[in-house]
């Protein structure tokens, strides 16, 4: 059995495979490690490119685009390894990126998953939006990172170089115990893409396991490679999936008050889009809420399988509103936040 399976989920990503596979293969030297490409039925030249340039690389070809969640779930069922690394195709790894992740996972069986420090490929002195130096959420489910709060992205001056427990590890570069991944059912297929790793990590933490960031490992992420940041579809997924993960994972006593508050906040957000005449984004929020309501029956079944009869406290959930702190209290860097209730 492999020690580590590094699995890149590809969809029409020939450009990134050509750009980043050479450095990945060069900087991934381990006696029991394999790089595997899982392809979500790409319509570009990805498969022909891989066969020509990397004939010895294992490729798992799927029959259609199952999204980030479904693609990984189907591919990982076919792989036997101690650790999976879910790695975006638009990531450049550094020479010593892998061993620190393996080392920290080997050091403590209670660590179920970890991530490296994730920095911007285009501005290498800065953190990258999707992960930075570890992920958190606030009491209302808004995600943020150590190094990135809302749209404020910090420069990396080694201020977040310590290994700490986090609430979620980024799906852009996520190492996870294969046994844990499979035992909890993997990623939730209904998310398709976006926030699926937060849901996965929340379920892991509800089992009493740990998720950490090890900044000794460093990678560089292009970001927005599949869906651009201004995409209404991406906005729709983020709003819908945030409601999905709150409904599935919140303890009973917090479920109604948190969801009710989120409905109000999302409504305000939709009205702001409308005031700016940003009609596609306005409709994206409405569509997200409509699909949340129509999914309640399915979500209720999932919720019953998870906890949820007792309160689970996680010190990595920020006990305040990150939106209020950001806009009103002007707390725009992670080191200004107070996680004590």
Within the CATH hierarchy, at the fold level, what is the topology of the largest domain? Spore Coat Polysaccharide Biosynthesis Protein SpsA, Chain A
Which segments are poorly predicted (pLDDT under 50) over 5 or more consecutive residues?
none
Question: What's the Cα radius of gyration?
Answer: 19 Å
CATH class of the largest domain: Alpha Beta
Question: How are the SSEs placed, and which strands pair?
Answer:
Layout: E1 2-10, H1 14-26, E2 33-39, H2 46-53, E3 58-61, H3 67-76, E4 81-87, E5 91-93, H4 99-107, E6 111-120, E7 135-138, E8 143-145, E9 148-149, E10 152-153, E11 164-165, E12 173-177, H5 178-183, H6 196-205, E13 210-221, H7 232-249, H8 252-275, H9 279-294, H10 296-306, E14 317-318, H11 322-327
Offer a concise description of the structure.
With 341 residues, the protein is of the alpha/beta class. It has helices at 14-26, 46-53, 67-76, 99-107, 178-183, 196-205, 232-249, 252-275, 279-294, 296-306, 322-327; strands at residues 2-10, 33-39, 58-61, 81-87, 91-93, 111-120, 135-138, 143-145, 148-149, 152-153, 164-165, 173-177, 210-221, 317-318.
What does the model show?
By secondary structure, this protein is of the alpha/beta class. The protein folds into 2 domains: 2-221, Spore Coat Polysaccharide Biosynthesis Protein SpsA, Chain A, CATH 3.90.550; 232-311. The chain contains 11 helices and 14 strands. The strands form 3 sheets. Strands 1, 2, 3, 4, 5, 6, 11, 12 and 13 form a 9-stranded mixed β-sheet that branches. Helix 6 (196-205) runs parallel beside helix 7 and helix 7 (232-249) packs parallel to helix 9 (279-294). The longest helix has 24 residues, at 252-275. The radius of gyration is 19 Å and the shape is globular.
């Amino acid at each position: 059995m492999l020690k580590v399976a590094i699995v890149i989920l590809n969809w029409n990503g020939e450009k990134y495979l050509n750009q980043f596979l050479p450095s990945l293969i060069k900087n991934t030297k381990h006696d029991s490690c394999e790089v595997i490409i899982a392809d979500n039925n790409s319509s570009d030249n990805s498969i022909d490119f891989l066969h020509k340039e990397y004939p010895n690389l294992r490729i798992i070809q799927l029959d259609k685009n199952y999204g980030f969640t479904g693609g990984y779930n189907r591919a990982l069922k076919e792989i036997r390894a101690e650790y999976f690394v879910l790695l975006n195709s638009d990531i450049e790894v550094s020479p010593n990126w892998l061993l620190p992740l393996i080392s920290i996972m080997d050091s403590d069986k209670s660590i179920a998953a970890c991530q490296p420090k994730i920095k911007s490929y285009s501005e290498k002195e800065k953190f990258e939006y999707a992960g930075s130096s570890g992920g958190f959420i606030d009491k209302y489910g808004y995600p943020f990172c150590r190094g990135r709060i809302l749209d404020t992205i910090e420069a990396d001056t080694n201020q977040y170089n310590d290994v700490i427990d986090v609430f979620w590890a980024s799906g852009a570069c996520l190492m996870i115990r294969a046994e844990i991944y499979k035992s909890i059912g993997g990623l939730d297929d209904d998310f398709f893409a976006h926030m699926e790793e937060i849901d996965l990590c929340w379920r892991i933490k509800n089992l009493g396991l740990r998720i950490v960031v090890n900044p000794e490992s460093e990678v560089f992420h292009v970001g927005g490679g599949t869906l651009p940041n201004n995409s209404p579809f991406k906005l729709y997924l983020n709003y819908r999936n945030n409601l999905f993960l709150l409904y599935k994972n919140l303890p009973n006593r917090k479920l109604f008050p948190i969801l009710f508050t989120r409905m109000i906040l999302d409504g305000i957000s939709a009205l702001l889009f409308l005031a700016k005449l940003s009609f596609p984004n306005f409709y994206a929020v409405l569509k997200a809420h409509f699909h949340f309501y129509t999914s309640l029956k399915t979500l209720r079944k999932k919720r019953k399988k998870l906890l949820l009869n007792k309160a689970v406290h996680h010190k990595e959930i920020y006990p305040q509103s990150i939106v209020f702190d950001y806009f009103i209290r002007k707390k725009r860097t992670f080191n200004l936040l107070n996680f004590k209730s």
